[in-house]
Specification:
Layout lengths: L1 H5 L18 H14 L5 H5 L2 H20 L3 H24 L7 H14 L2 H4 L7 H16 L14 H14 L12 H14 L4 H19 L4
Helix pairs in contact: 2-5, 4-5, 9-10
């Protein structure tokens, strides 16, 4: 409309910019909607949820996000990012109602901001770095100091998929210079662990590699059954 008016002879059009929302402004709307859903008079289903009942949805949405990334599907990437964000907002809203030690999405965000600033002294302070590899080393050093961990295995979630767990432990051992032999034996678990070791040595993510192979096998299955 403005361009059409500009084209009219003898008219001068002045454009007045409206209000400008900074990046993240819509996150306030998302938090407000979550608060409304969970508050009295909101959604009965949302009111019944707990951290435990929501946990499967968090895992499912994370895998759907991963699938969107693997498929390079930007439409679903945007949608699945929103679904993962919903889980974060939901869990934070539950935590706000709990005692002792309630906290809200604001405390979650504040902790994240503080962590990012602490672990990026090359950006927010005067530490100099040569490259991304040095950034990773600094990150690990700062993290180890913050966590006061007694073992390099501390912080490795045992609930992650087994291939990823095996790879993570082997990478931690290698980074720490630990000479720990793999489990001995000819059982399936030991052989799988050894295969993961081969992947780690080759700098290959075994979880991702198996997912690629599995997706290819799925397509072969669909072709065999005549599926489009």
């Amino acid at each position: 409309f403005v361009e059409a008016v500009r084209a009219l002879p003898g008219l001068t059009v002045e454009t007045v910019e409206g209000s400008w929302d900074p990046p993240g402004a819509r996150l306030l709307d998302a938090a407000a909607v979550m608060d409304r859903l969970r508050s009295p008079g909101g959604c009965p289903w949302d009111a019944e949820q707990t951290h435990e009942t929501l946990a499967p949805y968090l895992l499912e949405e994370t895998y759907e996000l991963l699938e969107a990334i693997e498929d390079s599907d930007r439409v679903h990437l945007r949608e699945e990012l929103g679904d993962v964000l919903l889980q974060v907002l939901f869990h934070a809203r539950l935590a706000q109602e709990e005692s002792p030690g309630p906290f809200s999405i604001d405390e979650v965000a504040a902790d994240l901001v503080a962590k990012l600033v602490r672990r990026h002294p090359h950006v927010f302070a005067d530490r100099a770095v040569a490259d991304a590899a040095e950034v990773a080393v600094n990150w690990d050093e700062i993290k180890a100091t913050e966590k006061r961990r007694e073992s390099v295995t501390d912080g490795v979630p045992l609930g992650q998929p087994a291939l990823a767990l095996a790879a993570k432990l082997q990478r931690r051992a290698a980074k720490a210079g630990l000479d720990v032999p793999p489990p001995a034996g000819d059982d399936l678990g030991s052989r799988l662990f050894a295969l993961v070791g081969e992947a780690v040595d080759a700098d290959v993510d075994p979880e991702a590699a198996l997912r690629v192979a599995s997706r290819a096998y799925r397509e072969a299955m669909r072709a065999a059954e005549g599926a489009p």
